[in-house]
Amino acid sequence: MKLIGVTGGVGSGKSEILRYLQTTYNCRILMADDAARALEAPGGGIYEDLIALLEEYPGTEPITHPDGQINNPEMARRIFSNPALRERVNQMVHPAVKIYALDEYKKECEAGRIDFFVLEAALLIEAGYTADMDSLWYIYCNADERRRRLRASRGYSDEKIDNIMKSQLSEDIYRKNADVVIDNSGDLAVSCSQVDEALQKMGYMPKKQ
Predict the structure, then answer these.
(1) Buried b / exposed e along 158-174 (16+ C-beta atoms within 10 A)
(2) How many other β-carbons are positioned within 10 Å of the β-carbon of residue 124?
(3) Full DSSP string of 90-139
C-alpha cells in the first residue's frame, strides 16, 4: 500500500484536493495538524511533556483549561513571542507527529482496508518526511490566486499574507522534491482530473459509487 505525501503553500487549496480524494477513492487521509492535536490532548503522547515545557515560560493566562485541555491561544502567544520556546516545541511535536503518522500507516497496511494512505503536512519537506513517502505531491497555485483566496476565505491582510509566504518554502524547492505536481490555480475539476491521472499511473482507480 502506497504512502502519498501531500504538501503545498498556504492558500493552494490542499483541503479541496484532499476532500476529492476522500470522497472518490478508497483511501485514508491523515492531516499532520490533526495528529498533533491528538498527541497534545489529555492522555496524548506528548501532553504532559508539552505542558511542563510551556510552564517554563509563564504567560498571561493558565496554559490549560479546567478540563485539562491546552489553552491554544495562550500556547500560541507563548510560542510566537519566544523563539527559543518555539524551537523546543517544534523539536518535541514534529518527531512525535511523524512517529504517530507512520504508525497509523503501518496499522492500515496490516488491516488491508484501503488502497492507499495520504499524509498531508505543510512542513512535509522541512520535517524530513520525503524519504518515507512512496510519492510526494505538491499542490501548486499561483501567488495571485493564493492571495485572492486568503483574503476572501480568511480575511487575511496583504501584510499577513506576505509574512506567511516568506516563511514557507520556495516554489523551486517544492518542485525539486515533488514526484507529482497538481496545478490547482484554476477550475477544481481540472485539478481533480490531474489527481485521477496521477493515481491511475500508480494503479489506483476511483471506488465504485
Answers:
(1) eeebeeebeebbeeeeb
(2) 26
(3) HHHHHHHHHHHHHHHHHHHHHHT--SEEEEE-TTTTTTT-GGG-SEEEEE
Amino acid at the residue 30? L
> In sequence order, what are the beta bridge partners of 174?
none
* Distances 150 to 76, 114, 141 between C-alpha atoms, Å: 21, 33, 12
How many beta carbons lie within 10 A of that of residue 14, not counting itself? 23
* 206's grid cell: 476511483
Residue 175 reports pLDDT greater than 80: yes
Edge-to-edge strands, sheet with 135-140:
27-31, 116-120, 2-7, 135-140, 180-183
DSSP 52-73: HHHTTS--SS-SB-TTS-B-HH
Signed CA dihedral, 121, 122, 128, 133: sign only = positive
List phi, psi (to 5°) of 72: -60, -45
Residue 98, C-alpha cell as written in the block: 511523524
At what angle are helices 158-167 and 143-154 packed, to 10 degrees? 120
Chain-wide mean pLDDT for the chain? 95
**Res 208 pLDDT > 90:** no
Whether 209 has a pLDDT exceeding 90, the answer reads: no
